[in-house]
Design goal:
mainly alpha, 3-stranded antiparallel beta sheet, 9 helices, 68% helix
Length: 280
C-alpha cells in the first residue's frame, strides 16, 4: 500500500513538471514551495504559536528565493548567451573591457588619494596592483548596469514570451521571475558595497597592498623613527606613515648632511608640495 501511494505521488509530481522549460520548472518549484509554506505555517501557527512560525518562514523563504533566482538566471542567460556568437558583441565586449580597466584605475587612484592624501602617481607600483584588485568591483558595477538595462528593455519593449511547443506557466510565474531578479540585483548591489565599505575585507586588503608595496620600515632619512614607515615620492620628499597613530604626512628627507628643514608639513602645505613636484 505504501509503495503504491509513493508511486502515485512521484508520478503526479513528474507530470506536474514535465513539458516545461528548465527555468519554468524552477519557477514551478518556487510556487509549490510557497503553497507548502502557507499550509505548514498555518498549521504551525494554530497548533504551536507565532514563535515557531519564524523557523518555518526562514527555511521556506530561503528555498523560494533560491529556486526563483536560479530560474531567473537560467531564463535570462539563454538570450544573453546567444550574443556571444555575434562578432559585433565580441568587439563591443573588448571595448567595454578597456573602459572597465580605466574605471578600475580611477577607483584605485581615488582610494590611494583618500588613504594616503598624496597624488597616486607618486605611488605607481601600488596604483598598478590596486587597478587589478579593483577589476572585480568594476566588472560588478558594469554587469549590474548592463543587466538592469537589458532586462528592462527586453521585458518592456521586446515580446519575451515566444510561441513554443513547451508548456508555459502563467500568473505566479511573473511574481517568481520578479523575485528572482530582485535577488540577483540585491546580491550584485551588496557585492559592490562590499568593495566600497571602508571597513570591509577588500578595503583592508587594499590598505595592506599600499603599505607593503610602497612604505618600508628602513629609510636612509634620519628623520624617520622606528615606529614609522616611509615612501620616497621624489624631489627629496618622503611620505611617512606613523604606525601608532595611523596618520600620513609629507616631510623633506633629512640625510644628515646639511641643515635642511625637517619640519612636518601640514595638509595644505603638503598639498602645495605635491603640486610643486609635478614637472611643468
Amino acid at each position: 500500500m505504501y509503495k503504491k501511494i509513493k508511486n502515485i505521488v512521484i508520478e503526479k509530481a513528474v507530470s506536474e513538471f514535465s513539458g516545461y522549460a528548465l527555468h519554468d520548472q524552477f519557477y514551478k518549484a518556487g510556487m509549490a514551495s510557497f503553497w507548502l509554506y502557507m499550509a505548514i505555517a498555518t498549521v504551525t501557527l494554530i497548533s504551536l504559536g507565532q514563535e515557531h512560525v519564524d523557523i518555518v518562514v526562514k527555511v521556506f523563504v530561503f528555498i523560494i528565493m533560491c529556486t526563483c533566482t536560479i530560474g531567473a538566471a537560467l531564463e535570462f542567460w539563454a538570450p544573453i548567451k546567444s550574443l556571444f556568437d555575434k562578432t559585433w558583441f565580441k568587439w563591443g565586449l573588448g571595448a567595454i573591457s578597456i573602459l572597465v580597466y580605466k574605471y578600475s584605475e580611477s577607483q584605485s587612484d581615488d582610494f590611494i588619494n583618500q588613504f594616503t592624501g598624496i597624488d597616486p602617481s607618486l605611488l605607481p607600483f601600488s596604483s598598478s596592483v590596486l587597478s587589478v584588485v579593483y577589476l572585480p568591483y568594476s566588472w560588478l558595477v558594469t554587469v549590474s548596469f548592463v543587466l538592469s538595462f537589458y532586462v528592462i528593455f527586453h521585458w518592456f519593449f521586446i515580446p519575451f514570451e515566444k510561441p513554443s511547443s513547451e508548456r508555459t506557466l502563467d500568473g505566479f510565474k511573473y511574481a517568481m521571475r520578479f523575485m528572482g531578479l530582485m535577488v540577483i540585483f540585491i546580491v550584485a548591489n551588496n557585492s559592490v558595497r562590499f568593495f566600497e565599505d571602508p571597513n570591509s575585507f577588500a578595503s583592508m586588503l587594499a590598505k595592506e597592498i599600499v603599505l607593503k608595496t610602497e612604505y618600508f620600515p628602513r629609510s636612509h632619512c634620519i628623520n624617520v623613527s622606528d615606529n614609522q614607515l616611509s615612501a620616497d615620492i621624489g624631489r627629496g620628499y618622503i611620505s611617512v606613515f606613523d604606525q601608532n597613530s595611523g596618520v600620513f604626512y609629507t616631510v623633506q628627507c633629512d640625510l644628515g648632511i646639511t641643515n635642511q628643514s625637517t619640519t612636518r608639513l601640514s595638509a595644505p602645505d603638503a598639498q602645495k608640495t605635491r603640486a610643486d613636484l609635478v614637472p611643468l
